[in-house]
């Protein structure tokens, strides 16, 4: 087991070396104000059996989770995903995905209140969507994708407590405590691939607890287990593609004192200034055809500080549950009038459930993903954008099952919005020790693309849409299923008999003219 | 009105109306984000593009039509030109549909004059009102919906039948059924209508049951059936060989397996939503085809076809649409082409109060439903029950009442076709 603890401070935070003390076997921090990343690397043999069995049958498995609260993602942890649980999975051999991955996900992610699995998955082929790839040659992203809304990680923590912590001979309570820290994390990544044969769990906390981080980290009992520690500040590098980090590093139990350090590397993800924000809403009334509005503040619309010769474009990546969908033909149009009226440039990629007619219960997979290039306002050189800019994406709702209120709620996570800029050939993003890939959208770009992330405005990053459905009172009330069934049948039968009676009159009673005359008179 | 003295003027006006709409549509498409062109037209033209690249038209999602349609629209896939030439190429299908409208109108006028002994002026008046100058008809074809093609096929079918061209009628019938399944209902009426008397034989009396049954088999009926079957089968075989299962699935089986759960005018729509979501216990909806087919295929042809073929076909269409599991406004155009045969001597015209009441109620039923549909679709209100449920039943009731009038009119002595 390897552990890496990184505290990242902004350049504005006063550097406080006295809050950290290192002894021969322990390192302690006191009231440290910083963002934090905790990364644990485990070998397969250190894992619970059921987990190891699934992983051994996978080529790669990557879980990405983010909280529904907005949080500051500072360098070098600037990348973002839509809130919820994203699973990216590539089976060992093509077309040989294992159902056990679904069993595992259903075991780990359980709705603690209802005791139900939140992951609706039986076979990966039926429940996961196939990721569109820019080029299979690069294959930077996994082949199958799953998403579900997941407000917190309580079920994952409970799983770690009863499996990983249970396995350990000693230090059970310390294990519980460490697992519990995930409850406050803003994002968690779990990575496995068959090349490294190791599992990495990374947690990210954007904000320290109220009085800062206070913790004691001891040297591990085993010599193989290593704890790396760092307090770093990230700044723009000399090259525009780079991030420069400086601060103190130590390996607990090996180093006698913290080592000052300064290094820089090209980075895939860069943050924009904190006022470069966006917000997402649906204009009311949403009806059955809600329109998603993405409103960007003027600082979001300035070309990002990429190298002069780089080409940059604003993008958004939507993760839509199956109850909400886009029309690929409507959105994929090349009609500039339509696109301009929505401030869209083009639909660049889409994957998943595309059926335009099916009700939600007839849809097998979890939903769909959409990558749009957004139109950005043209500004003269040197001038700055003054007004907000809103891009709109027309969407549609599927029919949902009847309910007793006549409504159901569709939860739509906020999309991520970012500038994508080309980087020079030969830029090696992989050397970044904090590099993050397999986010769903990064694989849709070439491997040497830089991303400048817009920040979601504060608040909950999930929009709720009220979906009108058939209102059914179970047993009581005016309109029950029975009324609809019997009422429809009765009216149709009545109509049928009436038409039949008319036909009998003209067909068989024609021989009796008196009858017809009477009819004529009646009118 | 002097206008109706000349067919030239009536048809010229119909053509000018369509040309104006075509040009306007092109302008709106080029200048507004809200398009004049129907979404279905984009489906057809996409399918044509696939064919032009040697692919199957079914590569386009929601292309649920015969490949014939995409073949006919191949010029729209032409990408060589620019400017007005490209616009005309794109509009080729719409021009074709609009032309089909006009030809359908011409055929109906011919029939009214020749077979119904109507004066040209009167025939023109009715055809203009119901079809040629009907803004709904012109709008649908110029927006690029293929429903107008059905109009010309049905008009041609009636023309071939009333002018006693059995083989041709069979070919048109086979083609129409291949195009859009529903015209098969006309086959029954036409067969029943086309007895030996229609072929000029003297009426026979006091026959035994056996000779009565043998007498049913006439040369015309055999020719019509065989030519319809051969046309329908060979078209399907050709399409199947070319495009395989997707052709059969999308053109025919889709209609059997589809879940028609989205709200529409049909009285079944709420029930189908309920049943599709698994909330229905009696499964009445599985029997929905029974009343529909009993009326449209058996009872109406038997009772009306020999009295007035066109009115029987109108009543069949009306019954088919009214009792269908799905009903959208494009289906209403199916019976518009048959109205000029029925209306002139109908009680709706003879008794204006009845006619006005029928029209007013029909529009009211539509308005009632549409207001509920608007509440659901655009305001997001849960209008399924009682709103949409009741208004679709009310609309059904109004349609059934009107159908009753059509049937009674079709059965009355003076109404008989003089063909």
TrEMBL record, chain A:
One MF term in the entry's GO annotations: mannosyltransferase activity
Transmembrane segments: 490-509
Location (main, coarse): endoplasmic reticulum
Domain of life: Eukaryota
Keyword Membrane included in the entry's annotation: yes
Coiled coil: none
Metabolic or biological pathway, per its Swiss-Prot or TrEMBL entry: Glycolipid biosynthesis; glycosylphosphatidylinositol-anchor biosynthesis
Any one of the GO BP annotations: GPI anchor biosynthetic process
Record-linked InterPro entries: Pbn1 (IPR042322), PIG-X/PBN1 (IPR013233)
Location relative to the cell: Endoplasmic reticulum membrane
Membrane topology: Single-pass membrane protein; Single-pass type III membrane protein
Transmembrane helix among keywords: yes
UniProt keywords, alphabetically: Endoplasmic reticulum, Glycoprotein, GPI-anchor biosynthesis, Membrane, Transmembrane, Transmembrane helix
Example of a GO cellular component annotation carried by this entry: endoplasmic reticulum membrane
Family: Belongs to the PIGX family.
Function: Required for proper folding and/or the stability of a subset of proteins in the endoplasmic reticulum. Component of glycosylphosphatidylinositol-mannosyltransferase 1 which transfers the first of the 4 mannoses in the GPI-anchor precursors during GPI-anchor biosynthesis. Probably acts by stabilizing the mannosyltransferase GPI14.
Name of the protein this chain belongs to: Protein PBN1
Species whose genome carries this gene: Penicillium ucsense
Automatic annotation (TrEMBL), chain B:
Pfam families named among the record's database cross-references: Mannosyl_trans (PF05007)
Membrane topology recorded in Swiss-Prot or TrEMBL: Multi-pass membrane protein
Pathway(s) where this gene product acts: Glycolipid biosynthesis; glycosylphosphatidylinositol-anchor biosynthesis
Subcellular location: Endoplasmic reticulum membrane
Metal-binding found in the keyword field: no
Membrane spanning stretches: 7-27, 85-109, 144-162, 168-194, 222-245, 287-305, 317-342, 354-371, 383-407
GO MF term (any one): alpha-1,4-mannosyltransferase activity
Domain of life where this protein originates: Eukaryota
Main location: endoplasmic reticulum
Its EC number(s): 2.4.1.-
GO annotation terms (biological process): GPI anchor biosynthetic process
Record keywords: Endoplasmic reticulum, Glycosyltransferase, GPI-anchor biosynthesis, Membrane, Transferase, Transmembrane, Transmembrane helix
Alphabetical list of InterPro entries matching this protein: PIG-M
GO cellular component: endoplasmic reticulum membrane; glycosylphosphatidylinositol-mannosyltransferase I complex
Function: Mannosyltransferase involved in glycosylphosphatidylinositol-anchor biosynthesis. Transfers the first alpha-1,4-mannose to GlcN-acyl-PI during GPI precursor assembly. Required for cell wall integrity.
Similarity remark: Belongs to the PIGM family.
Protein name as it appears in the record: GPI mannosyltransferase 1
